[in-house]
Amino acid sequence: MTSQRTRDRMVARLRERGIADETVLAAMSAVPRHLFVDAALASRAYEDTALPIGFEQTISQPYIVARMLECARAGRELARALEVGTGCGYQAAVLAQIAKEVYSIERIAALAEKARANLRGLRLRNLRLVHGDGYEGLPEVAPFDAIVVAAAAPQVPQALLDQLGRGARLVIPVGTATQELRVIERTAAGFRESRLDAVKFVPLRAGKG
Ligand code: SAH
Predict the structure, then answer these.
(1) Ligand 1, atom 16, residue with closest C-alpha
(2) Position 3 in a domain
């Protein structure tokens, strides 16, 4: 139930649903998602659903992780990427297969610790976890080639736009009761926004937990 074969079946389903970026699919195939959920849920780790990780938070559905990372990459090489909302650390681990240098911020200290424990065995030397408020991003490390936000904001946070490099992309669910995935690209002329699928994320909350 937790084997490479199970993971390959998950990847085949992602392909069927339209994920075409081979780099993203290879990353999804490489990261053992069952290591990021409680042992009692491990047998369900490769179903295409969100699952509880404690503190009223969830591990994102595999399709959504793949979709967000495909949009963030847009076929480019990513040197430096930021994730907001580490949660259990799964998406951060997938992103670390794709980008050269990855930072991930989590506001709830206990979840940041849990992610650290989940990730230890994978030895991802290019991934740094930060306990902090993702609304502020990481100005000291910016600019980023991609920023992926794993919680829904009522509006796009200005600080995250400011931390996009030229040609970089922010992928973020926006809304409260109803939400949509948005991709904002920083171009020479300013920001270009596209609106994608309707989604359902936990809320982005201000301040450290
Ligand atoms: N990336 C995770 C999904 C985590 S759910 C995965 O791979 O499955 C979203 C996470 O965002 C929660 O852990 C929540 O605590 C966190 N979060 C919410 N608001 C935040 C903020 N302002 N800064 C950082 N993390 C935040």
Answers:
(1) 85
(2) no
What is the domain extent for residue 66? Answer: 62-199
Q: How far apart are CA 65 and CA 83, in angstroms?
A: 11
Residue 157 lies inside a defined structural domain of this protein: yes
Ligand 1 centroid to Cα of residue 69, in Å, is: 16
Helices assigned H by DSSP within 74-206: 90-98, 109-120, 158-162
Note whether residue 55 is domain-resident. no
**Does residue 17 lie within any of the structural domains?**
no
Q: Residue 88: which CATH number? A: 3.40.50.150
Alpha carbon of 84 to ligand 1 centroid (Å) = 6
Residue 60 is among the residues annotated as catalytic for this protein? yes
Tally of domains in the chain: 1
Identity of residue 98: I
- The model's pLDDT over 129-156, given as tens digits with 9 standing for 90+, comes to 999 999 999 999 999 999 999 999 999 9
Pick the residue whose CA is nearest to atom 2 on ligand 1. 87
Nearest atom within ligand 1 for CA of residue 209: 15
Cα–Cα distance for residue pair 175/92, rounded to 1 Å? 23
pTM of the model: 0.97
Nearest CA to ligand 1 atom 18: 204
